[in-house]
Amino acid sequence: MATSEARHTQQHKGHLGMDTPPIVSPQAWEAARQQMLVKEKSLMRARDALAAERRRMPWMAVDKAYEFEGPNGKVSLLDLFEGRRQLIVYRAFFEPDVFGWSEHAWCGCSLGADQVAHLAHLNARDTTLAYASRAPQADIARLKARMGWEMPWYTIIDSFDADFGVDEWHGHNVLFRDGERVFRTYFVNSRGDEAMGTTWSYLDITPLGRQETWEDSPEGYPQTPPYKWWNWHDNYSAAASPDPKWVEASDAGEVAFRKRDAEDPKPA
Question: What is the pLDDT of residue 185?
Fold first, then answer.
C-alpha cells in the first residue's frame, strides 16, 4: 500500500502534468536547503574571487576620439562618463531592419532594459551606465518614452560598435577615465548579458568593483564599509549620506550577519 507521502507525490505529479520532485516534511526540506546552501555559498565565493581577478585584468588605452549623437547634439566618449570615473556602455540592438523596428528595440535588449536598476545607486559609486544604438535620437526618445526607460541613450555615428566588438547584437563595454585618458577594462556579451541589470552585477564588472572593504582589490583602490553608503535613490547627497540612524541599524545588522555566518567574511 502506498504511503501518504507517496500518494501526495503521485497526486501532485498528476495535477501538474510533469515529473516534480518529492514532497517531504519540513525537517527534510530544511535539510535539503542546508545542503544546497553550502553549494550556493561556494558559488558566491567563487563569483567574488572571479570579480577580484577581473579587477586585475590589464587595461587597453582608447586613443580614438569617438563621437555620439545625444539629445542635445554631438558628444564625445568622455562626455558619456558624465564626470564620473567609470562608464558602462551597453550596445542595444535598435536600428532599421532589427525585429520590432521601429516601434520596439530587439526583444532581448528590451528585456534587459526593463531590468536596469535605479541609476542613482551606480552613480553613487562613481559609475555611469549608458545605452548606445544605431537608431536616430528621435526614435530613441520615442522608444524610451513608450517603454518608461530613463537611462541615457546615444546614437552611434562612427566605428565605436565595430571597434568594441558590438557591430552586431549586443554587449557591455566597461571603460575607466583618468582625467582625459580613457581605458577599456572589460567586455561581456551573449549570455553574460543576461545577468546584468542589478546595481551589483554592474559594479562587479567595473575595475573598482563595489568599492567595499571586504573586497579583494589592488592596493589603493577606493573602499568604504559595506552597507554604510546605501541610500534611498532620491537621497544621495553629501549632507544626507550616510544617515546616522542607518549607520546604527547597519552596524547592528552586520553584527547579526557575522554571528550567523561566522565563516563568511563577506556581506551576506
Answer: 98
Sequence-distant (6+) residues with CB within 8 A of 88 are: 122, 127, 128, 129, 130, 172, 173, 174, 175, 202, 205, 206
pLDDT at 4 over 90: no
Dihedral over Cα of 23, 26, 29, 33: its sign: positive
Cell of 140: 530613441
Which of 69-73, 244-248, 254-258 is predicted with the least confidence, judged by mean pLDDT?
A: 254-258
**Residue 246 contacts residue 230 (beta carbons within 8 Å):** yes
Q: Structural domains in the chain? A: 60-203 (3.40.30.10), 225-268 (no CATH)
Q: How many C-beta atoms surround the C-beta of residue 193 within 10 A?
A: 20
Look at residue 264 and tell me whether its pLDDT is greater than 70.
no
